[in-house]
Design a protein that fits this description.
22 strands; alpha+beta; globular; 9-stranded mixed beta barrel; about 25% helix
Length: about 475
């Protein structure tokens, strides 16, 4: 069994922590990692099994705050200015007709999600070979600076811009100037057209990595006595530049900076879909990081602030170590078999079942390489495999097709005549269920893949015959 990670400062209220996880569970909000620091001290570091604070995972739009930091470095180097006109930065990418609104768009508008677009233009950019040209080709119905629209395509343009002015990809630039000084290793950032990092999504960092960034921000850009970026840039990036008061719930209507959100109560944050949070509260000298799978991020923010309010009340309540339990340990009544699979989007051509007392191992072949997915009986087993189309991605914003490593913790059970594999993705927030149904004679198999997440294309069905 993979152990939960659970560290609590002696002054932390166990009752408050227990209440936080209980409240989240009642709301259907899964918390995968949680860290809070106050006054430079680690107050808690928690990752319910099978998750870990060390796992690199997709943080969705939390990536935007790191893209903003890349722009900040470029400005500090004199490569860019916030009042630069976008048409001057990309003169070779312009459409045949440049209207007044496009001509008025400046870097500050792109940073503050106030480009004048009616909505996100990333769906028009992702599948092109030239993301800047695709961005500039989109209609700009509003004068820049007058209409807030959350726009991942704008952040992708920031990525292309850093690449243009620095000669490095956004990842290489941020890695050299931010990650290396913070001691962050093994991060990666997905790419789209022309090798441009996605920018607004696709950055894979661990909870341990993100808490370093949060502490760096809390310390005004200084890490272990060394200045990483200027305090002036941090203040500029995290103050309100856009009025988003019609954008929804309180923490999403309190103002937007340069790829940072202002909190309704105090402070600011970066955040991403499904509940990824990097919260900085300067007045309280507090930072918090959450990686999660939640359906209600406002409830998540409310619960987090309640926890912070009640964090340091010493009590004798026993700590309840949270964990996501595997499927029950039941007998697996299956034979080792091999199946040739029909043509399918994943590209798997062959399946070999290896059934043992304590686990089931699915050996998938794609005609070139074997991929292994192992599932434990009554316990989690970690696996790494590559499978296009089964990656949890924001459709229209991130590639489904490009091969990418998928890391999961999996368990299994027999359910009637079917084998169910439950996969908790370790490098993203999602959970996936794979059900294998066999004919009575075992001469054919049907596989059904179903993944959580409102952006998923739906269930995927595969069939095969025994060989």
């Amino acid at each position: 069994m993979l152990a939960s990670e659970y560290e609590l400062h002696r002054n932390v209220s166990r009752a408050a922590v227990n209440r936080f996880f209980e409240t989240c569970r009642e709301a259907g909000n899964e918390i995968h990692t949680l860290q809070i620091y106050q006054n430079g001290e680690k107050m808690l570091r928690i990752a319910p099994s099978p998750y870990s604070c060390t796992d690199k995972r997709e943080n969705y739009s939390l990536s935007k705050s790191f893209a903003s930091t890349g722009i900040g470095f470029a400005i500090e180097e004199g490569l860019l200015r916030t009042d630069d006109r976008i048409v001057d930065l990309f003169p070779d990418k312009l459409p045949d007709t440049v209207d007044d609104h496009l001509a008025a768009m400046r870097l500050s508008h792109v940073l503050s999600m106030n480009t004048g677009h009616a909505g996100c233009v990333m769906p028009h950019m992702y599948h092109t070979d030239d993301v800047a040209r695709a961005f500039l080709a989109q209609p700009v119905p509003f004068r820049p600076g007058t209409h807030f629209a959350y726009n991942t395509g704008a952040t992708c343009l920031l990525s292309a811009l850093v690449q243009r002015v620095s000669g490095e990809t956004l990842f290489d630039y941020v890695n050299r100037k931010l990650f290396v000084p913070l001691g962050i290793c093994g991060a990666y950032w997905n790419q789209c057209g022309e090798g441009v990092n996605e920018g607004g999504v696709g950055l894979h960092l661990s909870s341990d990595d993100i808490i370093k960034f949060a502490l760096l921000c809390l310390n005004g850009g200084v890490w272990e006595g060394k200045r990483i970026f200027s305090e002036a840039w941090l203040e500029e990036a995290t103050r309100v530049h856009s009025d988003n008061s019609s954008n929804g719930t309180p923490d999403w209507t309190a103002g937007y900076g340069y790829q940072f959100w202002r909190n309704a109560r105090e402070g600011y944050r970066g955040d991403g879909a499904c509940g990824q949070l990097c919260v900085v509260l300067p007045k309280r000298k507090t930072v918090a990081v959450i990686q999660a799978m939640v359906s209600n991020m406002q409830k998540e923010m409310d619960d987090l602030f309640e926890l912070i309010e009640n964090l340091c009340h010493v009590d004798q309540t026993p700590a309840i170590i949270p964990a996501y339990e595997p499927l029950p340990d039941r007998q697996i009544v299956l034979q080792n078999q091999s199946y040739r699979l029909d043509s399918n989007p994943i590209g798997f051509t062959f399946l070999r079942l290896d059934v043992r007392d304590d686990a089931v191992h699915l050996h998938f072949s794609n005609g070139r390489k074997e991929e292994l997915l192992s599932a434990g009986r009554g316990r989690w087993i970690r696996s790494v495999y590559t499978a296009p189309y089964r990656k949890p991605k924001l459709l229209g914003l991130m590639s489904q097709e490009a091969p990418e490593e998928v890391r999961v913790a999996a368990c299994c059970e027999m359910d009637g005549g079917s084998l169910r594999i439950l996969c908790r993705h370790i490098n993203s927030p999602q959970t996936e269920s794979i059900r294998l149904t066999f004919t009575p004679e075992g001469d054919a198999v049907h596989l059904r893949f179903e993944m959580t997440g409102y952006w998923d294309a739906g269930a995927l069905d595969l069939s095969g015959v025994r060989v």
